[in-house]
Design a protein that fits this description.
By secondary structure, the chain is mainly alpha-helical. It is built from 15 helices and four strands. α12 (290-298) runs antiparallel to α13 and α13 (308-320) crosses α15. The longest helix is centred in the first third of the chain and has 39 residues, at 3-41.
Length: 369
């Protein structure tokens, strides 16, 4: 390891320790708030259970306020709000629907708002207000709740909620960085003030990802954005790859869809199960290499198999292998998963499923330009 590598590793370790300290302080603040509220309302009897329950309630109430602060400000500055997530649940405003997301470990205890500007090049307009308003909402609610509890004699629970919200707002203003490289609100604010943008490396990929979340058909996208997308840094970035696949598959450019999958080292090494399933699907259906596609699909761990894209690949491989009953079962599973998630089978998917169920030859001619 070179001196530069050692220095970078040392900085990452210090940032990880700092982040844990901030999270621990926030957790202790929440527990203290809940404990104080319990003591002042029901006394010490059964206080441990009541403290735990109240701490969870305080925490997620503060998270909801935080994310709504981001979302409301994004709308106010003219941005598109694509999703508002709290724990494993999210709301998609454009589709007017709630959905359950996959569990993501530590992220299950927090939330996120995904918003983009009205145009692909409008990332600087209002971005600092959009980022700042989450912590600001927490601080304003916290101050108001504490003041109301003290002046009006409202229950101590209101004061406890206010203290938790206040702590969450302050904690989010401190610059920390996650193991995945994402910055806290405070870190993003410092970077924006320093001349960076929220989507510094992949503005087109993130902007088009927002269109995908909103259900905007790729055929209606501005095709001139695709060369800019290709030029963006980060060949293996998950957003970029997802956008490219959505576009190429819908317009029938299977050659380029296969190319971007083959070029991704993360897909080749199996780190992104959803894209491995896409790769297997295309290798079987368009590449006519069923054994290779089956081998790819078998590398996906069982916990990542209950997805629309996995079941779609599975039904094609089974059908091309002559296993009609298994292929029909996979079609049923694909539709079940689609109903439970945000996955929406397009006309080509439905035509494929119908051909499998009816025992007809699969549509494997992808000669579109």
């Amino acid at each position: 390891m070179t001196g530069t590598d050692a220095s970078a590793a040392g900085r990452e370790t210090l940032m990880a320790v700092w982040r844990r300290i901030v999270w621990l302080a926030l957790l202790l603040g929440t527990v203290f708030s809940a404990r104080a509220a319990v003591v002042h309302t029901i006394g010490l009897s059964y206080s441990l259970l009541a403290t735990i329950v109240l701490a969870v309630v305080f925490w997620y109430c503060a998270v909801v306020v935080h994310e709504l602060g981001h979302a409301i400000c994004a709308w106010a500055v003219g941005w598109r709000v694509h999703s508002i997530a709290v724990s494993v649940f999210s709301y998609l405003p454009a589709r007017r629907r709630f959905q359950r997301q996959e569990s993501k470990g530590e992220a299950d205890f927090s939330g996120a708002v995904f918003a983009t500007p009205r145009t692909p090049d409008g990332w600087r307009r209002g971005s600092i207000f959009y980022v700042l308003d989450g912590p600001l909402a927490n601080i304003l609610l916290g101050g108001a709740a504490i003041a109301a509890a003290g002046s009006d004699g409202l229950p101590a629970i209101l004061g406890g909620l206010g203290l938790t919200s206040l702590c969450m707002g302050i904690a989010n203003l401190l610059p920390t960085r996650s193991a995945q490289g994402g910055w806290s609100d405070g870190g993003v604010i410092l970077r924006v003030v320093g001349g960076h943008t929220i989507a510094e490396h992949q503005p087109i990929a993130l902007w088009l990802t927002g269109s995908i979340v909103d259900g905007v058909p790729p055929r209606s996208w501005d095709a001139s954005l695709m060369p800019r997308l290709e030029a963006e840094a980060g060949t293996d970035a998950i957003n970029k790859l997802g956008v490219q696949l959505n576009f190429y598959l819908v317009v029938g450019d299977i050659k380029n869809a296969l190319r971007v999958l083959e070029d991704s080292s993360d897909v080749r090494e199996g780190r992104w199960p959803e894209f491995v399933a896409d790769h297997a699907f295309l290798v079987a259906l368009a590449g006519h290499d069923v054994p290779r596609a089956a081998a790819m699909l078998n590398t996906i761990v069982s916990t990542s198999r209950d997805t629309f894209r996995y079941q779609r690949a599975r039904c094609v491989i089974a059908a091309l292998s002559g296993r009609h009953a298994e292929a029909c079962a996979a079609v049923a599973d694909a539709r079940r998963v689609a109903r439970a998630t945000a996955a929406v089978p397009d006309a080509d998917d439905e035509a494929l499923f119908a051909a499998i169920e009816q025992g007809r030859e699969l549509p494997t001619d992808f000669a579109k330009p």
